[in-house]
Write a structure and sequence with these properties.
Elements lengths: L2 E5 L2 E3 L5 E8 L7 E7 L6 E6 L6 E3 L7 E6 L4 E6 L8 E9 L2 E4 L3 E5 L2
Parallel strand pairs: 2-11
Antiparallel strand pairs: 1-3, 3-8, 4-5, 4-9, 5-6, 7-8, 9-10, 9-11
Length: 116
């Protein structure tokens, strides 16, 4: 019933931009904190950005501050990650995550590859 579907990943050159989208359904979206995580092969999943329910507060991992922006559109049940000035180190599978209390939902992920 609950579904999170990421899109927007792809191959981009260093310095380029991508906008990831996550479409949510099956739960009261506006009341959930939304997060983007990424996972590099061989590494654990890393929290990249988060946005609180209703969008009042955002946080970012230090490595993406000033380059990435998380946003949400509660009317559309969508969360976005605008990624600018991409670096090879940003290469990973990016996952959309919804959290509230004991509820913790994940999407399937979308691949971002930053390479020349």
């Amino acid at each position: 019933q609950v579904q999170l579907v990421e899109s927007g990943g792809g191959l981009v050159q260093p310095g380029g931009s991508l906008r990831l989208s996550c479409a949510a359904s099956g739960f009261t979206f506006s009341t959930y904190a939304m997060r983007w995580h990424r996972q590099v092969p061989g590494n654990e999943r890393e929290l990249v950005a988060s946005i609180s329910s209703y969008g009042a507060v955002t946080t970012y991992v230090d490595s993406v501050k000033g380059r990435f922006t998380i946003s949400r559109d509660d009317a559309k049940n969508m969360v976005y990650l605008q990624m600018n000035s991409l670096e090879p180190e940003d290469t990973a599978v990016y996952f959309c995550n919804a959290r509230k209390l004991s509820y913790n939902y994940w999407g399937q992920g979308t691949q971002v590859t930053v390479s020349s």
